[in-house]
Amino acid sequence: MPLWHVPIWEQLVRMNERLPHAILLHGPSGAGKSHFAEYFARSLLCEDRQPGLHACSACQACRWFDQYAHPDYRRILPAALEATKREHDEDSADPAEEEEEEKTASRSRGRLSQQIVIDQIRDLFQTINLSTHRGGMRVYCLWPAEALNPYASNALLKILEEPRPGTVFILTTSHIDALLPTVLSRCHKLAMPLPPFDMALDWLTGQGVADARTWLAEQGGSPLLALQAARSGSTKELDVFISAMILPDPATALGVAGQLQQIPLRTIVAWLHRWLYDLLSYRMSGQLRYFPRYSSQIGQTAARARLDELLRMIRKTAERSQVVEHPGMEPTARLHIEDLLLDYSRLFV
User: ∠ CA 206-210-213 to the nearest 5 degrees?
Assistant: First the structure.
């Protein structure tokens, strides 16, 4: 368990005697929420829990859980993410890969649903009133909760309104504001922030990552995403995006959007927000936060950008980040990328 997860785990340990029926882990992408959720689910189902409530990893329940075969455990994910998750399960339980799954899901499983749909929630009614197979708890993990479509959200709400004894729901979200207030009100919320930069840097260095500071900065301070990026060693997609930022050209926006359309829209918007922040920071103080690898290019670009337009676009990008998680956005991702590239080019007119 990473060091920054320990305080959250200790909160759960203190609640063990009166565990809520629904727990919502919320925080930024890359905090390790889904990995933590399954780690907790495994401990709840373990038949020989160790001090600190950690799973023993040796009992029958733990072995079943590791094979995703425990009869009292279910996870509810969008079909695209579930397909990607199963592929990762066969190879690794690495939390860095857990955080990358939501990115790869929309690329490799484009025809599968990006939403959690009502039929998935209705299926829970088939099991939730039955006795458990092992005489212990029943646990459901659901993520990302913002992928619940309106019908699924309302169906889930009915279940949460009448909690079943011995049943625990563990939800995760990177966008808590996207959830129904009524669903939120029925969950015990636990914040999972990113670790302090120095702690994340020490952890990455301990994982053997060279130039850890640069990788961590480019991933917005997420050590798990930085580890995944460093292991892949590829910055091809980010380089395409940065090239479009350095040489903004409305005439080539369509082509660039085509190259970037397989990247989740939320990732593009996050990159843009960090790039704009660095442009403004360099303009005001000569300092960079996110993209030190591109310091010379940022300096040249910042000098050409109109300050009033830069401030306007920073505000607009913050607004975009609030809506890109909507499940219906992916089919029109290319149009949104074209729009933001064209909007960005206005900084230099």
Answer: 85
